[in-house]
UniProtKB/TrEMBL annotation:
Compartments, record wording: Cell inner membrane; Cell membrane
Residue ranges of every copy of the ABC transmembrane type-1 domain listed in the record: 25-213
Purpose of the protein: Part of the binding-protein-dependent transport system for glutamine; probably responsible for the translocation of the substrate across the membrane.
Main location: membrane
Protein name: Amino acid ABC transporter permease
Family: Belongs to the binding-protein-dependent transport system permease family. HisMQ subfamily.
Transmembrane feature ranges: 20-49, 61-81, 93-110, 193-212
Highest taxon in the source lineage: Bacteria
Membrane topology, from the record: Multi-pass membrane protein
Stretch forming the signal peptide: none
Keyword terms, alphabetized: Amino-acid transport, Cell membrane, Membrane, Transmembrane, Transmembrane helix, Transport
Length: 221
């Protein structure tokens, strides 16, 4: 038992590596903010394109969504980080991770938005158009607010997945939380920093999980 505590729950090691893990957490939060912000916007544009009456816009959007959803995010990340330099485009680890996860999450957000838009009764849009609103105004002021409210638990749930997805950034040596914890483990020859990183993830994600569950129960009622 003493050996287990010394190797996995060593408070002294955790305290000494705490600044390094906080630096990794800050990088994780920055990455999440960029990926979530871009993903929400990109997903909305993809969803609107996929629901367009114009076939030349609709079918390419469907193809992009299916391709990005089918491709593993780790494969996409390695392709962008390691493949683009061969085309003469150097890219930083942060930019590579942000682009890869933005593309991946845009596809999932697009499907969530589409489900939300379809959940709004057609009569809502027809009434808005009859009152004199244009198509864009109807979508922005009538349909989208209701659609987002209907799929808010799914949007929040995907945000949780984005936070967990950032741990893959350690593959390209981006100094996020997991990478920092692994570096601390290598420096101290002790696994306690990894346990501390797991606790930080838990403390960060648990409130989000509970919030998703709360909204799901609220919508069910």
């Amino acid at each position: 038992m003493d050996d287990f505590i010394r190797l996995f729950l060593n408070i002294d090691v955790m305290m000494r590596t705490w600044p390094l893990l906080m630096s990794g957490l800050w990088m994780t939060l920055r990455l999440c903010a960029v990926v979530l912000g871009l993903g929400l916007v990109g997903g909305l544009f993809l969803a609107l394109a996929a629901m367009s009456p114009r076939a030349w816009l609709r079918w390419p959007a469907f193809a992009v969504i299916d391709l990005l959803r089918a491709m593993p995010p780790l494969v996409l990340l390695i392709f962008i980080y390691s493949g683009l330099p061969f085309a003469g485009l150097d890219i930083t680890p942060f930019a590579a991770v942000a682009v890869a996860f933005f593309l991946n999450n845009s596809a999932y957000y697009a499907e969530i938005y589409r489900a939300g838009i379809r959940s709004v009764p057609a009569g809502q849009a027809e009434a808005a158009r009859a009152s004199g609103l244009g198509a864009a105004q109807t979508m922005a002021h009538v349909v989208l607010p209701q659609a987002v409210r209907n799929v808010l638990p799914d949007l929040l749930s995907n945000a949780v997945e984005v936070v967990k997805l950032t741990s893959l950034a350690s593959v390209v040596s981006l100094g996020e939380l997991l990478y920092s914890a692994n570096m601390a483990r290598s420096l101290t020859y002790n696994s306690s920093p990894l346990v501390l990183a797991a606790l930080i993830y838990l403390a960060f994600l648990w409130p989000m999980v509970r919030l998703v569950s709360r909204y799901q129960r609220k919508l069910a009622v």
